[in-house]
Design goal:
The structure is a homodimer. With about 350 residues, chain A is an alpha/beta fold. Chain A has 12 helices and 12 strands. The first copy, chain A, has helices at about 5-10, 15-20, 30-40, 50-55, 70-85, 100-115, 130-140, 160-175, 190-200, 220-230, 245-255, 290-305, and strands at about 60-65, 90-95, 115-120, 145, 155-160, 180-185, 210, 240, 265-270, 285, 315-320, 320-325. In chain A, strands 2-1-3-4-5-11 form a 6-stranded parallel β-sheet, sandwiched between helices. In chain A, helix 5 (about 70-85) packs across helix 12 (about 290-305) and helix 10 (about 220-230) packs across helix 11. Chain A is elongated. The N and C termini of chain A lie far apart (about 60 Å). Chains A and B meet through helix 5 and strand 2 of A and helix 5 and strand 2 of B.
Chain lengths: ~350, ~350
């Protein structure tokens, strides 16, 4: 008996497209649908395999547990919902207004009552606090974690933050910057991407490139960091700021201390939150791959629901994208960018 | 037989609290719960009335249809979800990536398949295009529209935008401004609030207070409006900008044309979107009453599900709140606010 994966591979389309075509989704083109249906017959695929799996679980609901406030998670939930609906599922939104303990309660409730599968969004807590996730993993119930700190072998759609930082810092280096610093809370995987950008070009980060000073990833802390920075590293021409929220503060702090952005210091953030297009100057930053993350999460859940992806084989990685705006400039152009 | 409403009224609590207490929600305090249970017995309330209604509809799912991109709707959906979950419901998120036609399709799908009730968020289209909503209303199926242009007698949780504008413009007038203008697309109910603020103080808006010039509610159009404004109304000291997105552009346009905000012109927006805290200067604006809107929507849906609110009796209004930041200043203080 064939799996969705085999059909997808032979048809040259994604598992998602196969699931949608076999579920009768309207937006799969006729030719693709016919090819998939022919392959399903040829390969003796049981089209009701997915449906039977659901029947056993007595639900076609997928619960998405999301923390607030997080417009970044909502962008991904929208994509996930669109994909799962096309495959015949209902996405239940579960808003967690609390912490990890509340999340565990909401997850237990969703599983006990109805959810055929669960997507758990956003980061909260350490590995020690993830007992409820590990238990779900062991139970074999279909789930996926989305953009969360990786916990042991749990199935997670990850965002490759180091790759995003490497792209952004690489762009600064290619623009002639060498005195580039890293500002933000210590101990992040982002630091690896920062170093990688230098390494890829046969360069070394400048001495004292990493400044943490007990800062948090908040606008307030960013403001203090921005105000202190020109005094701490007078030779610097560019900096990577840990997150957009931190970067908004950094720009204010720099500006208040007389260091113009980007004329004196180029600033790059991380997240591409909604304000980044509207702050002054508009922030060059690293955008989450919302569309890809949402699609991968749907693909993992559908694969698990159809029995084609086993627990532990559902980790995927999406690479974020550098978005250049007006908070950065090239040194070797000899002129500033126009906003 | 008593209704939830009667119990709520006698117990001095909201319908929502009664529904939650009778559904066994953990966050209703013991004393309140006991009072509600006693009243329910006394008044011969049938505690399974709500449950029976649901059973007939064979679902405990409430579908929330939301457009994108809209972080403002998501704030409200989070509150709605929290309230309905506490009363034993599951909230299905349905993301509409299209227009009114797609909304009609999604609504039909939700109703045909499972949804016990539906909340339809955000504005789209004119009354003519709302045939699917009118049909739902006539069918008697529990629904509520949320923050949408009012359509005839459809049940809607409205945001009283004129009241919000009146509060903001009133604050400008009380701060000594008289030459206040209204910038944005023509034909909005916001204009009524603008006039009301003057009327409440026995004043008249200045000649030519309303400038539309074919502008749209976008940052780009706002920028053109801001750049043109000092030339069009050189005597003006303050302006109300139609929306935050428009206002972000207006501030850029004003600044680019040499009119400093708020030193030369005070600017007020509408919506309190995420960027408003981070633009330069931080924008004084009118915030949606997300919490109240979400609670009212839940109350209307629970009331309809329990048979206590009839179709046509479910319209509620929430008043937005003026949030003062640094894009406005008082004229009669003789000094500028510090950021």
């Amino acid at each position: 008996v064939a799996t969705l994966k085999e059909i997808a591979s032979r048809a040259g389309v994604s598992i998602r497209t196969v699931a949608r075509a076999l579920a009768g989704a309207a937006d799969v083109n006729a030719e693709t649908r016919a090819r998939i249906e022919n392959l399903a017959r040829e390969l003796d695929y049981r089209p009701n395999q997915l449906a039977r799996g659901l029947k056993l679980r007595r639900s076609h609901i997928v619960a998405a547990i999301v923390h607030r406030p997080d417009e970044l998670a909502f962008e991904k939930v929208c994509v996930l919902e669109r994909e799962l609906r096309a495959a015949g599922f209902v996405v239940q939104l579960v808003f967690n207004g609390g912490g990890v303990a509340e999340e565990a309660g909401l997850l237990a409730e969703a599983l006990a009552h109805h959810a055929a599968a669960v997507a758990v969004f956003t980061a909260a807590g350490s590995a020690d606090e993830a007992a409820h996730l590990t238990a779900m993993h062991k139970s074999g119930h279909p789930y996926v974690l989305v953009d969360r700190q990786p916990v042991r072998s749990l199935d997670t759609v990850l965002i490759d933050r180091p790759a995003g930082v490497a792209a952004a810092v690489g762009r600064l280096l290619d623009g002639g910057h060498r005195q580039v610093c890293y500002l933000g809370p210590a101990g992040s995987e982002r630091e690896d991407g920062f170093r990688q950008a230098f390494r890829d070009r046969g360069l070394e980060p400048p001495r004292g490139w990493k400044l943490s000073e007990g800062w948090q990833a908040t606008p307030e802390s960013g403001r203090a960091a921005g105000a202190a920075f020109p005094g701490l590293r007078p030779e610097a021409t560019a900096l990577f700021a840990y997150s957009d929220l931190f970067a908004y503060g950094v720009i204010r702090g720099l500006t208040a201390s007389g260091a113009a952005v980007p004329e004196r210091i180029s600033v790059v953030g991380f997240d591409d939150r909604l304000p980044s297009r509207f702050v002054s100057p508009p922030l060059s930053t690293i955008a989450h791959p919302h569309e890809e993350v949402g699609k991968l999460a749907a693909e993992v859940l559908l694969g698990k629901l159809g029995g084609e992806i086993k627990p532990g084989a559902g980790t995927r990685t999406a690479v974020p994208r550098y978005v250049e705006r007006q908070s950065t400039r090239d040194l070797n152009l000899g002129k500033e960018r126009q906003p």
